[in-house]
Structures are given as C-alpha cells and as structure tokens.
Amino acid sequence: MGHDHEGQRVSRRRLISGVSSLTLGGLLASPSARAAGTTPPPPTDLKTLLAKAGRCSLTSATTQGPFYFDADKIRSDIREDKQGARLRLAIKVQDSEGCRPLRDAVVEIWHCDAQGLYSGAEAESKSDATGPPTRSASNASAATPVLFVDIDKSDMADLKPTDDTRYLRGAQVTDGDGVVQFTTIWPGWYPGRTVHIHAMVHSGDQRVLGTQLMFDEALNAEVLAKPPYAGHKGRKVYNRDDGIFHDSMLVRVARDGDGYLGAIVLSADSDKDGG
C-alpha cells in the first residue's frame, strides 16, 4: 500500500469490492493514510457539532441531480485552485434502523464553485437555469420531504463529463464512528436553486442514499456578500423558495478561524428496505 493516497484515482466500485490494492481495511487502518488527512478522527469541536446534529430518522432523500459522475478520487481536500470561504465539513453516516454508525461506507460530495459552475460540466452548468420547481409563498411551509428515493432508479442518469476539470468533487470512506471529513469551500449558487452540496452514500455495491446539504440563510448572506461570491449577482431562490430544501438538510455550522466548520448526520437505509 502506498504512503499517501490523497488524490489517487481509485474506482469506487473496485474499492468497495476489495479488488483494488487500496482496500477499505488498509485505508482505514494505515497510520500514514490517517496522517495524510484521509479519514482523521474528528477533533472535539467536530464531535460536539455532530452530537448536536444527531437524528435517528431516515434522512430525506433526493434524486442525484444532473451533474453527478463517479470522479474516482479518494481525497479529503477537494478545493483544487478554487477560491472561496473555507468549509471543513464532517459527515457522520449511520444506519437508519438502530442508528448504529455505518463503517466502511463511501461518501461522495460534489457542488458548484463560487460562480455556480460544476467541474466536469462547466459549459452545461453555465447554461443550465433549470432545477426543481420552486415553492410559492402559499405552499413554502407545507412542503413535505421525500423520505425514501431509490437512487439506483433515479430519474437522472450519471453525467458523462464534458471537460477535464475535477474540482469540488471527492469521496471518503467512513471510519469506525461512521465519520468522514472534507475540506472544501462554501458552495455558490446557480439559477433555480438555493445554496447546497450534493451527497451520496454507497454501502457495499449499492447507492443507499442521495441527499443534499444546505445552510442557514444568514450564513449564506454573510459568505455570498464577500469575494469571490459577490461578483455573482442575481440570486433569487433562497431556502424558503427551493423545491428540495427541508430543515433536516441544514448543516450545523461554527466559525473556524477564517473559515467555517460544518457537521451533519445522515441516516441511510443500508439494506434498502425503506426502514
């Protein structure tokens, strides 16, 4: 096993099946991999945030959106050269039945940059102003989240990348506490949607959860008022208007030096029986 696996291209499917030389057991057990930031144990402040974010109910699920593809990269820092407010994000995954930590699950996240662009699909995301229906003022508070979506049968197919960029995308493997960590930037926005991060959980060889992570609007306003976000004008869809937003998707956030620290707990139906 190599000394440092950050940035190494590794097929998620091969990783899960154990065919790759970078096995789950090796990745989680290796002191060098942990030292490199692959799946470090969460510090006390993250543990506190995760404890506050704890829920024991199935996480609201969504379809995967138009810009997902398997980027084949196991890494914790997904920023590349993208500028923005630093966001250190911890995600704890647990099984929805009994809420035990889900170890050896693969968690992928992907989101747009400060200008609303997705890597691998810059042209498409620049021109795409579509999204889920927004909520009218009359029905904003009545929206009901979808509690279980079989994302293997999602209405959106995986994207075939149209460019070679791979920023703000990455995967991590959960540790014994079901936790992964990423370093990224606060996501921007694009027409038709509120600020969000996509997340997908794989257990075994199955996609068991696709959901989205969102942020308090006061914090969105604080971040988006500063460079490099401030030059991106015309935002019209906020959490209250977004057709996918639900309170359970809100990330717990604390200040972290010149950036932010976020934590959320996801409960996945690992055996896909709807429970």
Structure description:
With 275 residues, the protein is an alpha+beta fold. Helices cover 15% and strands 21% of the residues. The chain has helices at 12-17, 24-29, 31-35, 44-53, 122-127, 217-224, and strands at residues 86-95, 106-110, 169-173, 179-185, 197-203, 206-213, 252-256, 259-268. The strands form two sheets. Strands 4-1-8-7 form a four-stranded mixed beta sheet. The chain has a four-stranded antiparallel beta sheet with strand order 3-2-5-6.
Low-confidence stretches: 1-5, 7-14, 16-39, 137-153
Topology as a string of helices (H) and strands (E): HHHHEEHEEEEHEE
User: What is the makeup of the main sheet?
Assistant: 4 strands, mixed
Identify the overall geometry: globular
Spatial strand order of the main sheet: 4-1-8-7
Task: Determine the N-to-C terminus distance.
Answer: 38 Å
Q: Taking Cα atoms only, what radius of gyration do you get, to the nearest Å?
A: 18 Å
State the CATH architecture: Sandwich
What labels describe this entry?
Protocatechuate 3,4-Dioxygenase, subunit A; four-stranded antiparallel sheet; globular; alpha+beta
Layout: helices, strands, pairs:
Elements: H1 12-17, H2 24-29, H3 31-35, H4 44-53, E1 86-95, E2 106-110, H5 122-127, E3 169-173, E4 179-185, E5 197-203, E6 206-213, H6 217-224, E7 252-256, E8 259-268
Parallel strand pairs: 1-8
Antiparallel strand pairs: 1-4, 2-3, 2-5, 5-6, 7-8
Q: Could you give a quick summary of the protein structure above?
A:
The chain has a single domain (40-268), classed as Sandwich (Protocatechuate 3,4-Dioxygenase, subunit A). Helices cover 15% and strands 21% of the residues.
